[in-house]
Amino acid sequence: MPLNDDQNSDSDSSRLSESTASSSDSEYSRQSFNSDSSSKPSSPASSPPKMVTFDELMAAARNLSNLTLAHEIAVNANFCIKHEDYPQNSLAGTVKQIVHKAFWDHLESELNEDPPEYEHAIKLFEEIKEILLSFLAPGANRIQNQICEVLDTDLIRQQAEHNAVDIHGLANYIINTMGKLCAPIRDNDIKQLKATENIVELLRQIFHVLDLMRMDVANYAIQSLRPYLRRNLVDYERTKFQEILEETPSALDLTTEWIKESIEDELSSISNESSSSPGADHSSKSSISPTLVLNNGYLKLLQWDYHKTIPETLITDEVRLQELREKLNQLKIIACVCLITTNMVGAAIANVPDFANLLKRISVPLLEGMSKKTFDLKEALNAIGVQICIKVNESLTARDLPTLNAEMQNNLMGQIRSIVEENNPVSSLIDKRIQLFMKSLLALPSFRKCMPALPGGLSVIQPEMELVGSQFASIVEFNKQVYGPFYANILKKLLFPEAAIGKAGIEAPSN
Question: Nearest 5°: phi and psi at 142?
Fold first, then answer.
């Protein structure tokens, strides 16, 4: 995966990027967006429309793959390559099993012939030799020469012609060499290899352990690469995306539409808050804060329909954003359940310590897997309502208070089930308060130093909200750092189109 070590950037374009990432609203003046940032060497260039060839499209896809992989390695400390088999009883798994069994059965029949036939075994030894050599660090000449000498396929083929191949001796040498090269986690696998007597099964297991060793090497490389990527990720991602943009001029179309929608929402909000004169649209548009536009766009991602394509500049964090959206949906349901319950039976449970957390502990297990298509939310809410009625009555009984009658229980369970209904007032209220909290969080100059006050009704989910909020704000902050220059150019064209037209008119003669 190629990495760009060039970290030089023009001071003007750096200021533009930083302002998009963290400036206050007042810093986004018309002057900053009328500046000629697009001509700076390190600013993202706008490519003229052109036909994209298949090779260029594939190159862009490779760049996107590298960018996504680099981003995942850097931001996800748990990212690693895992050895995964096909699901049991799956078609692909069954086919693989049949093909492999046929191969090893054929090898066994060849070695059992009189005299033995070694051609397939020799090919396996040749492949094993190449795998072992791939594990060696540069300069390991002695062991390299030894591997090439012992596993010399020409020599083994000559020995086979005279029926003098010591196949067990070769296998033992391979196992001993693997033991020298493997990570400590594979020591037990090496011991099991040494205890295997059947030569065909031994060769099969050798390949299995070699696959595990290749995975270990790849994960070690990832671990070694992670600190470098973290130090250079902003420059690397910005450079890679610029390459994608040059090869695929339409690579910012969805991002532009995303920002455009956010601008339209902001204009609509301004229009609703104050009566506008016929000529107020333009002045309202030019006074919109770019920071607010971007932040509102980011907030949309927490309610995004992830069946449709996400803006190009956020593809590397799509999975994380989707997980945060699903977590917020779960937290919203929990907050709704707690609010409904406390409003209905609040007086009876007002003095019960930690009752709100008890409601949360009831709800969380029953809401696991909410994002799955097979999940029945209405059924889950009904189960939550039943459990809450039981716990409330247990608490009332323990304090010699009258329990909830059947009508009250049905009312409580019905209100909990109605959370999923469209325009449910409790659900709408909690949703607005969650959005207000996240919006306040993004507006903070440094979200790490403090958290905004949590709106009413969310105290029961405060620890989870603060965790989700900090994770979301971290994604937003990094995304602004990387793609700030690209966003600045888009905002300049959408908010100040007359400046872009004027600039084009001035530059036209020189072109």
Answer: -65, -50
